[in-house]
Design brief:
FAD/NAD(P)-binding domain; binds flavin-adenine dinucleotide; five-stranded parallel beta sheet
Length: about 350
C-alpha cells in the first residue's frame, strides 16, 4: 500500500490515529504546528480519575506511533488543494506534501477567562485557571498566592466559559467537573491546612470511577462542595478575593473571602482549526466544533470525501474517548482507501 495519509494535529488524537494507520500499512505524515507533539495533555500532570502521571500515557502512545510515522513539527499549512485523487498540502517554508486522505485532529483551545470579566482573571493577581494549576503541579512548584504565601482558603469555580449563554457557549465541557475534583484532592494532599470550596451548578461525574473520586474528595479530603454560581469577585487591598454567590440548595446568599481562586475553563473551538476547515470547506455546528457526516453512525467522516475527523476537534472529550475515537477514525480511513477491507 503506497497510499499516504496526512494527519493534521499532533495531540493524542492525531498521534493515536497516526499509529493505528501506520499499523494498517499506510504511509503516514503527522503534522504539528508546535515544537513537539502531545497537544494539551503534554501540559497535564496527573490524570483523572486514577491520578496516574500523564507521561505513562505518552509512553504508550509514542511506542505505538514511532513504528513508521513521519512527524513534522513546527509545520504551518498555508493551503490544501484537491486534484485527481490526492490532496496537496503546502507549508509556510515552501515545501509540500501529497496525500490520498486527510485526518483533522487539531483539537481545541481553552476558553479565554478574561471574557468573564466579573471573575477578575487577568485583573486580580490571585485568580488562575485550572490549566495554570496543572502547569504548577507539573513543574513541581508549590501552590502559593501571587506574593508567595501559602493559601489558607481556595475556591474552585465550575463552568467557566461553558453552559453560559452570556459568552455564547451553551455546551458542557464534560471534563472540567472531574478535573476540579481531582485538583481539589491534590491541593488538600499538598496543603492539608488549606480549606477548599468548590462552587458548581451541578456535578457531571459521567464516567467510570468519577463519582467515586467525588466521594473521596468529600469523605477523605474534606473538600466543600457548594451548589451556586459565582456572581461577582472583588479584590481586597491585601489581594485576597471576596466572592459573592448564592447557595442554591439553601437559598441563602453567600459571601466568602479566599486567598486563591481557580477557574475551571472549558473547551472552545480553535482558530487554527477554523483556518484549515475553511481551506477544506468543512462545516461546523452551532457550537463551533466541526461536524461529522452523521453523529451516530459516521462520526469520523465529513462531507468532503477523503477528509476525516478525530478527537476533540468535534467537541470536549477525555483521553479515553479521544483515543477510542482516533482508532475509529483510522478504520474509517482504511475503509475509504482500501474499499472492501473496512
Ligand atoms: C485543564 C484540563 C485538564 C485535563 N485533564 C485530563 C485528564 O486528567 N484526563 C483526561 O482523560 N482528560 C483530561 N483533559 C482532556 C484532554 O486534554 C483531551 O482529552 C485531549 O487534549 C484531547 O486531545 P486532542 O488530540 O483531540 O486535542 P489537543 O490536545 O488539543 O491536541 C491538538 C493538537 O493539534 C495541534 N494543532 C492545532 N491546529 C493545528 C494546525 N493547524 N496544524 C498543525 N497542528 C495543529 C495543536 O498544537 C495540538 O498539538 C483535560 C482537559 C483540560 C482542559
Ligand atoms: S463538566 Fe462540569 S464544570 Fe465543566 S461545563 Fe460541564 S458542568 Fe460545568
Amino acid at each position: 500500500m503506497n497510499k499516504r495519509v496526512a494527519v493534521i494535529g499532533g495531540g493524542i488524537a492525531g498521534m493515536t490515529t497516526a499509529g493505528a494507520l501506520s499499523a494498517l500499512g499506510f504511509n503516514v505524515t503527522l503534522i504539528e504546528k508546535e515544537e513537539q507533539t502531545g497537544g494539551h495533555v503534554r501540559n497535564w500532570d496527573r490524570l483523572f480519575p486514577s491520578r496516574r502521571h500523564s507521561a505513562e500515557v505518552f509512553d504508550f502512545i509514542e511506542k505505538n506511533m514511532r513504528a513508521g510515522v513521519e512527524v513534522l513539527c513546527r509545520s504551518i499549512i498555508t493551503s490544501i488543494i484537491y486534484d485527481s485523487g490526492a490532496f496537496t498540502l503546502s507549508f509556510e517554508n515552501g515545501s509540500s506534501l501529497k496525500a490520498e486522505a486527510i485526518v483533522l485532529a487539531t483539537g481545541y483551545e481553552l476558553f479565554d477567562a478574561r471574557k468573564k470579566e466579573e471573575y477578575g482573571y487577568g485583573i486580580y493577581d490571585n485568580v488562575i485557571t485550572s490549566a495554570e494549576l496543572e502547569y504548577r503541579f507539573k513543574s513541581g512548584k508549590k501552590i502559593t498566592t501571587h506574593n508567595g504565601t501559602t493559601p489558607k482558603r481556595i475556591a474552585i469555580i465550575h463552568c467557566v466559559g461553558s453552559r453560559d449563554e452570556k459568552v455564547g457557549n451553551l455546551y458542557c465541557s464534560k471534563v472540567c467537573c472531574v478535573t476540579g475534583v481531582k485538583q481539589s484532592i491534590e491541593i488538600r494532599e499538598m496543603l492539608p491546612h488549606c480549606e477548599v470550596y468548590s462552587f458548581y451548578m451541578d456535578l457531571r461525574m459521567y464516567d467510570r470511577n468519577f463519582e467515586e473520586l467525588y466521594f473521596e474528595a468529600q469523605q477523605k479530603w474534606g473538600v466543600n462542595f457548594i451548589r451556586g454560581r459565582l456572581s461577582e469577585c472583588a479584590e481586597n487591598p491585601d489581594h485576597t478575593l471576596v466572592l459573592k454567590t448564592e447557595d442554591t440548595l439553601t437559598g441563602r446568599p453567600l459571601k466568602m473571602t479566599v486567598d486563591l481562586m481557580i477557574l475551571l475553563v472549558g473547551f472552545v473551538p480553535g482558530e487554527e482549526t477554523r483556518k484549515i476547515a475553511r481551506m477544506l470547506g468543512l462545516q461546523s455546528g452551532p457550537d463551533g466544533f466541526l461536524l461529522s457526516t452523521d453523529e451516530h453512525v459516521q462520526d469520523n467522516s465529513t462531507s468532503i470525501p477523503g477528509v476525516f475527523l478525530a478527537g476533540a476537534v468535534k467537541g470536549p472529550a477525555c483521553i479515553v474517548n479521544t483515543m477510542a475515537d482516533a482508532r475509529a477514525t483510522a478504520l474509517q480511513v482504511n475503509g475509504f482507501l482500501n474499499p472492501g477491507h473496512e
